[in-house]
Amino acid sequence: MSRTTAGFVWSFAILSIAAFVFTVFRCYHIPLAHDEVATFYYYIQPGSFIPFYAHPDANNHVLNSVLAYFSYRLFGAAPWALRLPQCLALIIYLIVLWQWSKTLHSNASKILLLALLILPAGLLSLFSLCRGYALSVACFAGIVLFIQKSVLNFSIRNLMLTCLWMQLCIASNLSMLYVIAVLTVLLVVGIYFFKSPIKFYIIWTVQVLCMLYWYLYAQFLNAKGALYYGAGNSFWKTTIVSLLQFIWAQPTITWGLMCVIILIGMIVFSGVHQKFMVLKKFKILGIWMSVFITILLCIFFTKTFLAINYPEDRTGLYLYLILAVIAIYALEYNAKVWISRLFVIFTIFMVLPSWRNIHVYNHPWKLYETFPLRFYNTILHESRKDSVLPIIGGHRVRELIWGFQNYQSGGLLPHMYAPEQFQFLCDWAIAYPQDSVFAAPYYLIADRDQHSGFYLYKRTHALNRNLFFKSPQHFIPFTNQEYYTLIDTQFLKPLQGPVLAEWEFKCKAASVPFDAWIVLEYKGIDKQPLYYTRVPMALIRHNFNTYPLWHSHILAPHIKGVHQLVMYIWNKSKANANLHCNSIKLYHLTGPGVDSCSRASL
Q1: How far apart are CA 345 and CA 353, in angstroms?
Q2: CATH topology assigned to domain 371-602
Q3: pLDDT in the model for residue 150
Q4: Which terminus of the chain has fewer Cβ atoms in its 10 Å neighbourhood, N or C?
């Protein structure tokens, strides 16, 4: 083994170990983000993830949901357990990259492989998310490796493994459908070019049928309005800018753009210098350049004629991966050593600054924001000093994060009230620092988290809870019915002020988990709905049958013209259950600032 080769081996080993340790720490320490909790609630917890039958949303990364479901059944609902498949995917990813590096001969291309596919902070951080993006990255690396092997030896084994990696890639992340479709077309070209026997065409036919299945599933989601990402009209802003910001995990894209420009120039120079005289030498590079150009044409065609959204940040991940592959092969075939060294040095200096925004306690992207568990523990500790349950406020994105933390603690606190703006009718709130100016007359800052950027606000004076309705005890038998009305009360005069609905339930013989919602709905004088809010019971406790009493509440803000208030249970899965209602109480909330909200620009 030469000194240069030994240096690369040691570099690869050290980076791989560091990446794995870093990922494991993040998987353990970072609370679940909104999208991760949504994946848990809709797909992992109920074990419902089969396409066309599960809840229709792009959030269902099928392979991730399947693997996380088995991990959940074995190890429980801890964040590290739900993210365990990503840690295993990182091991597979690193092994595949090592196998791929052994097919490369240029030291520059090997170093560039490390710089582009292991070092970027945003790319590595995907492996600490309970989402399918990291799995798709690992599967894409497998595709690259076996396409390389197929070019050198077009065997039935290599073809089958290539198709397998392709199917796993789409199952991990449906947005990879573009690149896999293009590669599937190239497969049949390769089969014809190598004059392969009929069994090769049989494998390709199975691949096409599987592709058709995923295409129909994508159309099914699109018809349901579930492919909502990347709605902008500018390819530059929606795709290029967002993707580079996502990969580099920092707001500037200057370094990334310079790298892309230099890459294009290097490929052109390499092509002119070599004149593409040796076809075999440029066969793999030509394949990936063809794939990239074809995908760009497909993106513009589908956006223009089919109104399919542009890929945005993580949904355009395949564009970065293909460019990385092109860059690695361009350096592999580039005869000018000084160009290769210059590009590698530039790339490393481009990637390293992205680590300024990385730590083990939070994700580097705003779209995966979260807050620490100590906020929950603080509220839980303080609530034990009071005779009433606290009202917790936040935002619809923070709602699921709070819900999961509450779920892990056995549902000891109420569900979060989650309006779009910080409304000052809560005892506690998790909000941004910008809200502090408007909240100052009514709240003090109980805690600050420098990693997530969130503040924990505590009301200085408790709100008055004025009881105006109380229901008698009654038994609630569920026999496969979908809706059960708890209260339905009307008012001669419009309802004034926010309403807090508080209940005490005993639950027996309910399904585990109990997939039902408690809904509080406002109606006008014409009985038309004005507003509703809801609590997902399956995200409160895993098993309601083991608790003697469920005491909680739900909050609705002040809405003008409310003449009817309805509270009901939506038994979504139509499961059998027996609930004994001890009481339902309705309160008017009064106090300073109860009709005010933050006007911070976020």
Answers
A1: 13
A2: Jelly Rolls (2.60.120)
A3: 85
A4: N
